[in-house]
Amino acid sequence: MKQKWTTAQMPSQAGKTAIVTGANSGLGLETAIALAGAGARVILACRNPAKAAAALDKLQARAPGADASLMTLDLSSLASVRAFAEDFKQSEGQLDLLVNNAGILGVPLGHTTDGFENHMGTNHLGHFALTGLLMERILATPGARIITVGSLGHWRGKLDVGDLNFERTPYVPFAGYANSKQANLLFVTELARRLAAKGSGVIAAAAHPGGADTTIKPRKDNFAQRFEDAVIAPIARRWLINSAAAGALPTLYAATMPGIEPDGYYGPDGFAGLRGYPAVASRKRSSKDPELAKRLWEASARLTGVSYLD
To answer: Between the CA of residue 115 and those of 71, 118, 303, what are the distances in Å?
Structure first.
């Protein structure tokens, strides 16, 4: 029987520098803790300074002596993304690992400071710009990796590159999320292709947590939320979904293990990919369509003003 992969099998990350976006809670925090525990120098890139400080305290408690620090990053603001990248490049000469983890789920229709639909702007366009602005450091680091966190929700994505901001399409919160997660995987497909075309050894891959017990979903103060908390959530935790720590395992596997394929996709090996241990995951065919990926890349570069690997 094949051994189930956990962080106990993770190679040493000593001497490596990693950025984890959205590391203040959930999957991002668990990813940062595991990387720091394995010896990496980890930068927690978070939007909320107070929550980030609390997360850093948790990390240091669970990984004593870890080399970890905070940097402010709001992916819903291109100005913040640019400032983060500039600050990083001024102080750091290498970037071994970029984990594009941060995300939002199920928010009402709204727009980022740059006018993008919130899911697309935060989950995809912010990470697209961040990756490009850090590409110089990534390309200069032997063995570097870029890991983007996807979702089972991408199966419900119906991405229209000509309508990324729901200007024509009727808006449904989960549709916004699903489209952004489909965009994450298309981004990885085109990123991997462009890196290969440049002869780069940088690996771009993706992972998803399955169903994970995190706080990404907005909470509501109503009967339905209380019923979910009291009845549905305990059953789901027991039988259907991963803990946040287990949900982070596919990301950590893709980020650290030998043999990871460019444009590879990894997720839990259990029923419907909801829970379990890291394995190669299946994905919607349109999430790796090369022509759609190319068109999304070009639109993303135009919208963000960040062009790279041309």
So the answer is: 24, 8, 10
Mean pLDDT over residues 196-219, rounded? 82
Cα pseudo-dihedral 249, 251, 257, 260, rounded to 10: 130
Task: With beta carbons less than 8 A apart as the criterion, state whether 71 and 44 touch.
Answer: yes
In whole numbers, what is the pLDDT of the chain averaged over residues?
92
Residue 258: count other Cβ atoms within 10 Å of its Cβ: 5
> Which tokens is 306 given?
């960040």
pLDDT at 229: 41
Spatial CB neighbours of 252, under 8 Å, sequence gap ≥ 6: 7, 10, 31, 34, 35, 278
253 is catalytic: no
Domain ranges of the chain: 7-303
Least Cα distance to 72 among 57, 87, 93 occurs for: 87
Ordered alpha helix ranges (H), the chain:
26-37, 49-62, 78-91, 118-119, 126-133, 135-139, 173-197, 223-227, 233-235, 244-247, 249-256, 290-304
pLDDT at 221: 54
Q: Which of 177, 253, 265, 308 is catalytic?
A: 177
Domain 7-303, architecture per CATH: 3-Layer(aba) Sandwich (3.40)
Q: Strand 145-149 vs strand 203-207: parallel, antiparallel, or unpaired?
A: parallel
245: helix, coil or strand?
helix
pLDDT at 218: 54
pTM greater than 0.85 (yes/no): yes
The closest alpha carbon to 84, from 19, 15, 150, 27, belongs to 19
Produce one character per residue of 263-277: b if its CB has 16 or more CB atoms within 10 Å, e if not: bbbbbbbbeebbbbb
Token digits of residue 290: 């090369």
pLDDT-based confidence at residue 243 (cuts at 50, 70, 90): confident
- What single DSSP character describes residue 161? G
